[in-house]
C-alpha cells in the first residue's frame, strides 16, 4: 500500500503539469470496472479519486502524486454505451495522445471485471498495449463478487483473451483489500526497477 497520495490536476488533454517527469503508472479499463476505487484502496484514501455507480464518471485524465516518487494517472474509461460517437472519438484521441506523449510511463494497469470475459474494447486496449510495448499488468477487479474457489474458472478465459498467464493476473477487491499487497509489489518492481531485480511483468 502507498503511504502518501496527493491529487495534482485534472487534464482534458495530456500536457504539462507541476512535477511532470517523474515515473508514471497509468490505470486503464472500461467505465465502471473500478479504476477510481482501486486507486483509493491502493492509497488508503476513500475520497481521493471520485467513484460512481454511474459509468463514465472519469472523463478527464486525473494525475496523483504517490509517495512523492511517481505519478499515478487515472485515465478515462472506455466502453460506456451511452456516450455519443463524437465522445468516443474524443476518448480515442485523448488516449492515443496520452500514450504517445507519456515518456515517463513505466507500467499500465489494465483492469477487467473478474466476472466477465473481456469485451471487444478490452481486446483492443490489450492489442494496443502489446503493439506499443508498454509493460502492463492485468488486474481482475471486484474479486469479492465471486468466491475464491471460482477464481480459476474466471481467470482462465480472461488470460486466454488477453494473452497472459492466468497466474500473472492479480485478482483485486477494493472492498476488502484482496490483492493489494501483490499489486503494490508489482508496481514498485516495474516503476523502480533499479531498486529491485529488473523484471518484466508481461
Ligand atoms: P469510470 O470513472 O466511470 O470509468 O469508472 P471507474 O472504473 O473509475 O469505476 P469506479 O471505481 O467508479 O467503480 C464503479 C462501481 O463499481 C462503483 O459502484 C464501485 O463501488 C464499484 N466497485 C469498484 N470496485 C469494486 C470492488 O472491488 N468490489 C465491489 N463489490 N464493487 C466495486
Ligand atoms: Mg473513475
Descriptive account of the structure:
The chain has 202 residues and is of the alpha/beta class. The protein has a single domain, classed as 3-Layer(aba) Sandwich (Rossmann fold). The two termini are 22 Å apart. 31% of the residues lie in helices and 20% in strands. The model has no long low-confidence stretch (mean pLDDT 90).
SSE topology sketch:
Elements: E1 5-11, E2 24-29, H1 35-43, E3 61-66, E4 70-74, H2 85-101, E5 105-113, H3 120-132, E6 136-141, H4 151-162, E7 170-171, H5 180-191
The structure holds guanosine-5'-triphosphate and magnesium ion (MG).
The site of guanosine-5'-triphosphate has 23 residues, from helix 1.
List keywords for this structure.
202 residues; alpha/beta; Rossmann fold; 7-stranded mixed sheet; 31% helix; binds guanosine-5'-triphosphate; binds magnesium ion
State the gist of this model.
By secondary structure, the chain is α/β, with parallel strands linked by helices. It has a single domain, classed as P-loop containing nucleotide triphosphate hydrolases (Rossmann fold, 3-Layer(aba) Sandwich). It has helices at residues 35-43, 85-101, 120-132, 151-162, 180-191, and strands spanning 5-11, 24-29, 61-66, 70-74, 105-113, 136-141, 170-171.
Write down the CATH topology: Rossmann fold
What share of the residues does DSSP label as strand, in percent? 15-25%
Number of strands: 7
Cα end-to-end separation:
22 Å
